[in-house]
Amino acid sequence: MRKVKLQIQMSIDGYVARPNGEADWMTWNPDDQFLQFINSLIDSSDTILLGRKMADGFVSHWENTFRNNPDNLFAKKMVDIPKVVFTKTLDKSTWNNTTLAKGNLADEIANLKKQNGKDIIVYGGAGFVSSLIKEGLIDEYHLIVNPVAIGNGMSIFKLLDRTQKFSPIQSKLYPGGKVVLSYKPNND
Questions:
Q1: Which structural domain range is residue 34 located in?
Q2: Which of the two ends of the chain, N or C, has the fewest CB atoms closer than 10 A to its terminal CB?
């Protein structure tokens, strides 16, 4: 069965965005090892999950990046991989290569996991990811910790109503300063 993998940037104090969703605090000093890790996650996936609030900026960013630089292979991957946007408000997708999921979150994820294919990667946003975490729908967490504290912002663990324990998969400090902490949830 396919796995749902979360890849998300966060500050050292545990926030994934500023209070209004700004991501201007993220550091970007990629090194070859970090880029290889990011590529390995996306290459092991053939579906991207997004919340409605994040979808517009995400899809347009990668389409513009690819349009302006067709040699950018990562941007091409991001444009080419089918995306599923979870929404309660939209009736029609205006984005290329994107479908809408409007049903029960757990049922929609279960149906996606049953399909043939590679794993499924989640990029966000914060509210959507919080809902996935609360429902226990993420199989692997890949938390990319930036060497910055922002003091206040959006947390992805705010909806938990119980303690969630995890088992480590790996942790790695990359030369550019980011640390990736990878975990799987203990479901006991």
A1: 29-165
A2: C
Alpha-carbon dihedral angle through residues 55, 16, 47, 117, given to the nearest 10 degrees: -170
What does the mean pLDDT of the chain come to?
94
Whether 92 maps to a domain, the answer reads: yes
Rounded to a whole number of angstroms, the CA Rg of the chain reads 16
Of the CA atoms within 13 Å of residue 183, those in its CB half-sphere come to 13
Smallest CA-to-CA distance from 34 within 144, 185, 133 is with 144
Residue 145's CATH number: 3.40.430.10
Angstrom distance (rounded) from CA 110 to CA 114: 6
Domain count, the chain: 1
Question: Mean pLDDT, consecutive 10-residue segments, the chain of 188 residues?
Answer: 96 96 88 92 96 91 94 94 94 89 96 97 94 96 97 94 94 94 90
Predicted confidence (pLDDT) per residue in 136-176, tens digit: 999 999 999 999 999 999 999 999 989 999 999 999 999 98
**Phi, psi for 43 (deg, rounded to 5):** -70, -25
Q: Note whether residue 87 is domain-resident.
A: yes
